[in-house]
Automatic annotation (TrEMBL):
Gene3D superfamilies: Winged helix-like DNA-binding domain superfamily/Winged helix DNA-binding domain (1.10.10.10). InterPro entries: ArsR-like_HTH, HTH_HxlR, WH-like_DNA-bd_sf, WH_DNA-bd_sf. Keywords: DNA-binding, Transcription, Transcription regulation. Residues 17-108 form the HTH hxlR-type domain. This is Transcriptional regulator. One of its GO terms (molecular function) is DNA binding. GO terms for biological process: regulation of DNA-templated transcription. The keyword Endoplasmic reticulum does not apply. The keyword Cytoplasm does not apply.
Length: 114
């Protein structure tokens, strides 16, 4: 699957709006897991693979290549790290995790039919 590009059709958007391009990229298998696992420290491939235990080496390698190609992840002396843009993106995504925790009761109530 080619890298999503602004102005080109992506999943969910024919116009290729930047936010939809980002969502397309981040919705790929293990993309978010890689960002989360690199958010606190650099990790080598084996460490990332252990933390993303159901990711095949080929999928993990593909995601790392994609995230490197768009400037969110880079090679470091000790493995992989987030770039400045990657760290900025993570800081912006982290509050969504907090929101999701607060949303759980609403989701549970909806599944019960409340």
């Amino acid at each position: 699957m080619p890298l999503p590009k602004p102005g080109s059709a992506v999943r969910g958007s024919q116009s290729g709006q930047p936010i939809m391009v980002l969502f397309d990229l981040l919705s790929r298998r293990w993309a978010m897991g890689i960002l989360w696992n690199l958010s606190d420290q650099n990790r080598n491939f084996r460490d990332l693979q252990a933390r993303c235990d159901s990711a095949s080496p080929s999928v993990l390698n593909t995601r790392l290549k994609e995230l490197r190609a768009v400037g969110l992840v880079e090679r470091a002396d000790d493995g992989y790290s987030l770039t400045a843009d990657g760290r900025d993106l993570f800081k912006r995504l982290e509050p969504l995790g907090d929101w999701a925790k607060e949303w759980v009761p609403t989701l549970a109530a909806a599944s019960r039919g409340d």
